[in-house]
Task: inverse folding
């Protein structure tokens, strides 16, 4: 049996780093769209008696989204010349359709049947992935709302403070994506020098520190005395933007390192890469559902606001980071062996 050289692991990390880079480029363009407040002038028909300026800007952004989706869908369909392949190599539509039911059943059985083959390292990666996304989802769900409510002191549809805060949050996310893209360029060097598990763990700890900083800034903003009367002081806004910007580093790690790690450890088990990615996605979407359902009641239990969800995210990120640093083994370089 021929084993793949460690160079293939490196290529996997590089590929995921490029994925993270191009995602950052798309995020920068998207958040720049959200930060611009004059879209209603570009699309004047969106401004109506029932839809004010903020509503018109949002509606205009949706029109831009529809346009980009149409263009990218057309490019994907025209560029990808894929031929459906069945297990028996049949190319007839009827034969392929006749096998579709059994293929779906086999896929679901294989997906859950792979659990018994996982090593402790794979389970550690899945656990850290779940904890990481328990940390990230409160931020991804409530980041601009936090800026609008708890930094700018506004409420939706009540004055301009909330809208100004949401737009400033979009600026923060734009800066976040810039750091995400820059980090992606150095991803391979970071992982090669320190090990992907160690880099992932440190990034999670940085993420937790940033969430704690958001809690501290919320406390400072509530005690400065400007909420409900004036715009936030410059130092509060700059501190919030700095937190958003720093979070771009751990987000870049989250978008690439877990996929490279699970691919590396699944490879030695002889399981399909598609199944491994499917299992990793389960470790992402299940925490997302838990946070989406539980964050609202959790926040209300502690008096409203977004701080309780961020506190849970900080704890989850810290625990996941410590597990990653301590428990995820560093991959050893393997020399290629020729088949005997």
Result:
């Amino acid at each position: 049996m021929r084993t793949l050289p460690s160079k293939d692991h490196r290529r996997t990390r590089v590929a995921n780093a490029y994925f993270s880079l191009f995602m950052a480029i798309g995020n920068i363009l998207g958040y720049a769209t959200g930060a611009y407040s004059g879209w209603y002038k570009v699309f004047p028909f969106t401004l109506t008696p029932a839809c004010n300026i903020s509503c018109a800007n949002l509606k205009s952004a949706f029109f831009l989204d529809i346009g980009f989706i149409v263009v990218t869908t057309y490019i994907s369909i025209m560029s990808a010349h894929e031929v459906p392949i069945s297990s028996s190599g049949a190319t007839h539509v009827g034969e392929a359709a006749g096998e579709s039911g059994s293929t779906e059943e086999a896929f679901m059985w294989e997906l859950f049947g792979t659990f018994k083959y996982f090593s402790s390292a794979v389970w550690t990666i899945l656990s850290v992935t779940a904890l990481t996304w328990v940390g990230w989802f409160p931020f991804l769900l409530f980041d601009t709302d936090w800026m609008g409510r708890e930094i700018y002191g506004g409420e939706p549809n009540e004055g301009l403070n909330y809208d100004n805060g949401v737009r400033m949050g979009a600026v923060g996310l734009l800066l976040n994506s810039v750091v995400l893209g820059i980090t992606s360029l150095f991803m391979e060097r970071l992982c090669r020098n320190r090990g992907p598990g160690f880099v992932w763990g440190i990034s999670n700890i940085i993420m937790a520190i940033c969430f704690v900083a958001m809690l501290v800034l919320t406390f400072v903003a509530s005690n400065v005395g400007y909420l409900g009367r004036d715009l936030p002081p410059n130092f509060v806004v700059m501190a919030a933007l700095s937190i958003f910007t720093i979070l771009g580093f751990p987000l870049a790690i989250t978008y690439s390192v877990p996929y490279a790690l699970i691919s590396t450890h699944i490879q030695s088990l002889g399981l399909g890469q598609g199944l491994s990615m499917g299992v990793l996605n389960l470790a992402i979407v299940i925490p997302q559902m838990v946070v989406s359902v539980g964050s609202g009641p959790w926040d209300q239990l502690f008096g409203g606001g977004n701080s309780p969800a961020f506190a849970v995210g900080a704890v989850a990120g810290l625990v996941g980071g410590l597990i990653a640093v301590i428990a995820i083994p560093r991959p050893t370089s393997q020399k290629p062996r020729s088949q005997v």
Residues 1-6, 87-106, 334-340 have pLDDT under 50 and may be disordered. DSSP finds twelve helices and no strands in the chain. The two ends are 8 Å apart (CA to CA).
